[in-house]
Design goal:
This protein is an alpha+beta fold and 82 residues long. The protein has one domain (2-78). It contains two helices and four strands, in the order ααββββ. The strands form two sheets. Strands 1-4 form a two-stranded antiparallel ribbon. The protein has a two-stranded antiparallel sheet with strand order 2-3. The longest helix is centred in the middle third of the chain and has 24 residues, at 29-52. It is elongated and about 65 Å long. 0% of the residues are buried.
């Protein structure tokens, strides 16, 4: 449900701009196809990032931290048995 709300909030400015163009009768096919093309690129990019960058459920993300005066980068480690 949260993803749907985020998607609606993301699309609202595009819809508002489209209504503004339609109301001003400056609506052209180039603007429509350009906007739809950019939205599709953004949608596929967001989906790809979500699917490729996720940590599996069996792993736990450990954020970057300092050990012995040096920075240890963030990493995914196995969850300890519970």
């Amino acid at each position: 449900m949260l993803r749907l709300v985020e998607l609606v909030l993301f699309l609202m400015p595009f819809a508002g701009y489209g209504l503004w163009l339609w109301g001003g009768r400056r609506y052209t096919g180039q603007i429509l196809w350009g906007t739809l093309g950019i939205m599709l690129v953004l949608l596929f990019t967001a989906a790809w990032l979500e699917l490729s960058g996720a940590v599996p459920p069996t792993m736990q993300y450990v954020p970057p931290h300092m050990e012995d005066g040096r920075i240890v980068p963030g990493q995914a480690v196995r969850r300890p048995p519970q």
